[in-house]
């Protein structure tokens, strides 16, 4: 099992119950993390989109997560 | 200059930063908080940013714009925190030798900022609140 | 607000005049004096206006723009007299509910101002001076 | 003969020798005034364009000039 600390922004804070959460998952990819998060926090399924950022960049689904990576949930942005 | 700040934005300062003695044209976009959204009165807005990533994404947009247009100066300032109607949320300023480029580059930057930069706003109404554009049901926000 | 003035233009004031609580978008064009023209150093510029007619022509352009886009606020300020490089010659600001309109309307206004409004500038170089665009031989000025 | 007072702006001041000039012409239209001015101040012929404004509006060539009209020479504009 791999343990990751997740930063939450915008509406995702409401689903994760705060600005950060820790999750344990079997896999080690962005896709695996996404599935686990969607299951554990079903509210995320209702979003128009959800990107996952790794080390301050939008990450692709196949990206392998490292232990020291900064991981963040990016719901639909609405700046400006 | 890329700035994400809780303090009121000094528009003149943003323009000064983007200006350049060799440029004849500066285009500036100022995004302000509207007092209504879909017919409801907005009491205030909460802006939140993933600051380190937001700065990086804005930098990428500026880099792209620099390849498309001859930018001689530019500045982007985005406010976060609590904003009331009429307050300035974002200012983008670019200077170019010829004016058409200044319009096109400034529009490109604000369009892409709104699409890609991790900043979020929550509108607070008299009877509730809503993270803008978050859900499919939400009416897309098109300022 | 339409203003032709010998005093330095207060950009913030022009923006404030064009802003409106119901608007989310303000686009601003700032035209400044460049320090060079066709490779020659500009020492200063002399701007002259046929003031009464200039105000009338700007008014017509604003009226046209109001029919094409939902302007919620606007302001145009043009400076005359002696201007040095870096100084602000013209500021156009318009606010609209949605941002694309603010860009399009502002560009329309400055484009037409440059085409039709009776204002003239003379560039003064180290070794001579020239009324811009007056003669066919003159290189068209395209800021 | 009709006598008109003409305001000059921009480069046309150089040709008319000042901000205003008076001319006497046989006709009473903008076109007649234009011909007379071109003849009397040949420098005007070298301009890229020359409009004549009457009472603060661009005037058509056929317009008949009245005694109290404010008449102005508008060389190529270069504002902004």
TrEMBL record, chains A, D:
InterPro entries reported for this sequence? Beta-grasp_dom_sf (IPR012675), MoaD_arc-typ (IPR010038), MOCS2A (IPR044672), Mopterin_synth/thiamin_S_b (IPR016155), ThiS/MoaD-like (IPR003749)
Any one Pfam family match given in the protein's UniProt record, by short name: ThiS
CDD domains in the record: Ubl_MoaD
Keyword annotations from UniProtKB, A to Z? Nucleotide-binding
NCBIfam families the UniProt entry points to: moaD_arch (TIGR01687)
Which family is this sequence assigned to? Answer: Belongs to the MoaD family.
State the PANTHER family in the record: MOLYBDOPTERIN SYNTHASE SULFUR CARRIER SUBUNIT
Identification of the protein by name: Molybdopterin synthase sulfur carrier subunit
Traced from the root, the source organism's taxonomic lineage reads: Bacteria, Pseudomonadati, Bacteroidota, Cytophagia, Cytophagales
Automatic annotation (TrEMBL), chains B, C:
Asked if Cell inner membrane is a keyword of the record, the answer is no
Give the record's keywords alphabetically: Molybdenum cofactor biosynthesis
Concerning InterPro entries, the annotation shows: MoaE_sf, Mopterin_biosynth_MoaE
Q: Which reaction does it catalyse?
A: 2 [molybdopterin-synthase sulfur-carrier protein]-C-terminal-Gly-aminoethanethioate + cyclic pyranopterin phosphate + H2O = molybdopterin + 2 [molybdopterin-synthase sulfur-carrier protein]-C-terminal Gly-Gly + 2 H(+)
Superkingdom of origin: Bacteria
CDD domains this protein is in? MoaE
Q: In which pathway does it act?
A: Cofactor biosynthesis; molybdopterin biosynthesis
Keyword Nucleotide-binding listed: no
* Group of enzyme by EC: transferase
Q: Where are the transmembrane segments?
A: none
Which EC numbers characterise this protein's activity in its record?
2.8.1.12
Family according to the record: Belongs to the MoaE family.
Subunit (UniProt)? Heterotetramer of 2 MoaD subunits and 2 MoaE subunits. Also stable as homodimer. The enzyme changes between these two forms during catalysis.
Q: What is this protein called?
A: Molybdopterin synthase catalytic subunit
Q: What is the native source organism of this protein?
A: Chryseolinea lacunae
